[in-house]
Design goal:
The structure is a single chain. The protein has about 375 residues and is of the alpha/beta class. About 25% of the residues lie in helices and about 30% in strands. The chain has 9 helices and 20 strands. Strand 10 and strand 11 form a beta hairpin. The protein is globular, with a radius of gyration of 21 Å.
Length: about 375
């Protein structure tokens, strides 16, 4: 019969994706004793299964300041973490196949310029000149030069390894069973690994468990309005260098980027299936192949060498929950990034560390409060 093991920390972080690992790193850099609990391995779930876009444009306006601040962190990550995450600031093109979509991009671009994000509106001729590899189906595009890409398999791990070097305890293959509180204050986390149960005493717990965040801490009685959605990415064999810029079209329903070694990644945008199932449906591959060929003629007849499914964490307004949970002292949620959290990971982790150590983050997080859903009559 196994006995319960006990540990102690100043902060427990649940979830080893890019947000959780970044939070652990920035906290450890400030001298905080952190234990990170991950049910699988670091960077294995949503953070490691996305398209690798590091994007500021085409976001909810509430997120834009965070994305812009995060890109500044991305620019220095290789030196700071002493690890090459394959970050490339080569821009992002969002294309339109019709005038209505183009008008939407123009309106969005005007708002982005007001917020200090440098974007360009390209007509058909400028798009042909700047991105000749794209098909002639597009009438124009919006371009952000400071957007880019990174390797989603490497970035969370780079944060995790750097955090470990600073003294963070990484408990992988360990499931957080519950978050416990007494008299309105967090007291400990109950976790489970192959050897049995672990009680981790800590006054602060950060729930960064992505799509699994609503399942964490059932005894707290907090309902998080986060639902899973399946995403699928397919990768080709190595190809000659075709393009460096991240490209996407909501009209065609696909995005694409070419990795450093030449493989082209293709993923879908738009309506996704609400499920934890990470298998790849055959019709999804057909859809991605068709969309990729329509977008980039050089990809006609391509073969996908491998595919993977991932699980996104969707909130009703597609904006994350980031901040303290009222009524439970010491409980922080950082989840619900709704398919665009890879870029935000570094700044989310940094803001969490500031909130915990200094009391307030350097950027306002009022718009990301959990309470906003109750105020709108949305239940978890």
């Amino acid at each position: 019969m196994s006995t319960q093991r006990k540990m102690g920390a100043e902060v427990v972080i649940i979830g080893g994706g890019i947000v959780g690992c970044a939070g652990a790193y920035y906290l450890a850099r400030r001298g905080v004793k952190v234990v990170l609990v991950e049910k699988s391995v670091v960077g294995n779930e949503a953070s490691g299964r996305n398209g690798g876009g590091v994007r500021q444009q085409c976001r909810d306006r509430r997120e834009r300041p965070l994305a812009m601040a995060s890109v500044k962190l991305w620019q220095g990550l290789q030196a700071e973490l002493d690890f090459d995450v394959e970050y490339l600031q080569a821009g992002n093109i969002r294309m339109a196949t019709n005038e209505k979509r183009m008008q939407d991009l123009e309106r969005e671009g005007a708002e982005e310029l007001q917020d200090g994000l440098a974007v360009e509106i390209w007509d058909r001729d400028e798009l042909r000149r700047r991105a000749p590899y794209l098909s002639d189906v597009f009438v124009g595009a919006k371009y952000c030069a400071t957007d880019g890409t990174a390797n989603p398999l490497l970035a969370p791990r780079a944060f995790g390894w750097a955090a470990k070097r600073l003294g963070v305890t990484l408990l992988t293959h360990t499931r957080a069973v519950d978050i416990c509180a007494q008299n309105g204050h967090v007291t400990h986390v109950v976790a489970q690994d192959n050897a049995g149960e672990i009680m981790i005493e800590a006054p602060i717990v950060v729930n960064a468990a992505g799509p699994w965040a609503p399942q964490v801490g059932p005894s707290l009685g907090i309902k998080l309005p986060i639902e899973p959605e399946r995403t699928v990415v397919a990768v080709t064999q190595r190809l000659p260098r075709l393009f460096d810029t991240f490209v996407s079209s909501h009209d065609l329903g696909v995005y694409s980027r070419q990795a450093r070694e030449g493989q082209v990644h293709v993923g879908g945008v738009g309506t996704l299936t609400r499920t934890f199932d990470q298998s790849t449906p055959v019709d999804a591959l057909e859809y991605l192949a068709r969309g990729a060929a329509q977008m980039i003629p050089a990809l006609r007849g391509i073969n996908f060498l491998r595919t993977w499914g991932g699980t996104l964490e969707m909130t009703p307004d597609k904006v994350p929950v980031l901040g303290r949970v009222p009524g439970i002292e010491g409980y922080v949620v950082a989840a619900g990034f709704s398919g665009h959290g890879f870029c935000l990971g570094p700044i989310a982790g940094k803001l969490i560390s500031e909130m915990i150590v200094e009391g307030e983050p350097s950027l306002p997080l009022h718009e990301f409060r959990l309470e906003r859903f109750a105020e709108k009559g949305i239940r978890g």
